Amino acid sequence: MRPSIATMTTDQLPVRNEVNVETTPSTGQSLEYLTDRARRMARRYAQTSPYRLNPNREVWEGIVKGIGRQAYTFGWPYCP
Question: Is residue 43 in some structural domain?
Fold first, then answer.
């Protein structure tokens, strides 16, 4: 089990420009699953916070797809 990003020290955080595919954490999940998880996270955040989703669905859907892709590629849901 990998440590939570919240408990990592600065020197443990992954650096985007130095990604080593062999050491990149694998989620073991499909791209579709990770994208759907990011979509659910965005909707849940909009329901429980004073913020709302961008009314232009294409905009927020693009961001959600980017977060899913980052989670699939790097093992963490980095903002695209």
Answer: yes
Domain count, the chain: 1
For residue range 3-45, list pLDDT tens digits in order.
555 565 656 655 555 555 455 567 788 889 999 999 999 999 9
- Report if residue 8 sits inside a domain: no
40-51 burial: b if 16+ Cβ within 10 Å, else e: eebeeeeeeeee
Domain that holds residue 66: 27-80
Taking the model in full, what pTM does it have? 0.64
Residue 14, CB-side half-sphere exposure with 13 Å CA sphere:
20
